[in-house]
Amino acid sequence: DVKVTQSSRYLVKRTGEKVFLECVQDMDHENMFWYRQDPGLGLRLIYFSYDVKMKEKGDIPEGYSVSREKKERFSLILESASTNQTSMYLCASRPKGWKTGNEQFFGPGTRLTVL
Amino acid sequence: QQQVKQSPQSLIVQKGGIPIINCAYENTAFDYFPWYQQFPGKGPALLIAIRPDVSEKKEGRFTISFNKSAKQFSLHIMDSQPGDSATYFCAASRDVAGGTSYGKLTFGQGTILTVHP
User: Fold this and answer.
1) B25 beta partners
2) Is the CB of residue A92 less than 8 Å away from at least one CB of chain B?
3) B10-14 and B111-116: which strand pairing?
4) Structure confidence by residue, pLDDT tens digits, B15-56
């Protein structure tokens, strides 16, 4: 079974703090994604990575950055946390290509509260 | 810019009912339409998916109906059970084999389904 793990289930931070959210997948997937989930807005893509050290902006990248130094690990960074970044953050991965369809495998999420 | 619109936002049915969740998309380049199911405390998981070359796909009690001309697709859950209570997301992506969008998914807003016993 594909396993995607996220470093924290719940996180509380103060405005202005630098926040790191970590995601690790164990299936050697090339593509990894960070989403935020908000009620009534669904899942919105923040950033994704298609290879080590490669990244592309998603639909809502402002206020975020990412790092992918190793294939299995994809980090989301909030440079200076703000209250409007309070949300559920979901990491996902999928293999390259379409041999296995386009299923993305999600982690359990990190609920971040910024005070 | 929401490219996939999902309705209703919430839905309550009795056990055995047939909830229907609808989605509409704008981008005609989309060629893959999955539905994800999310239980509380868990990440979303793929439930069923369809490509636009067919109008319907069934997997167990779950059916996707697809209308390419109307740019709409829907999820039907036959004989719904309390265990089906979850949040459901439709999504769309544009990427056939060899494409470069890396399988990015555009999600709808989600529907919270409650099935009463």
Assistant:
1) B4
2) yes
3) parallel
4) 999 999 999 999 988 889 999 999 999 999 999 999 988 999
> Which residues 2-21 of B are in CB contact (within 8 Å) with A?
4, 6, 9
Q: Do B110 and B22 contact (CB within 8 A), yes or no?
A: no
**10-residue block means of pLDDT along chain A (115 residues)?**
89 97 94 95 95 93 97 97 98 81 91 98
Q: Is B62 on the interface with A (CB under 8 A)?
A: no
Contacts of A43 (CB under 8 A, 6+ apart): A35, A36, A37, A90, B44, B89, B105, B107, B110
pLDDT at A2: 66
Angle of CA points A14, A15, A19, to nearest 5°? 70
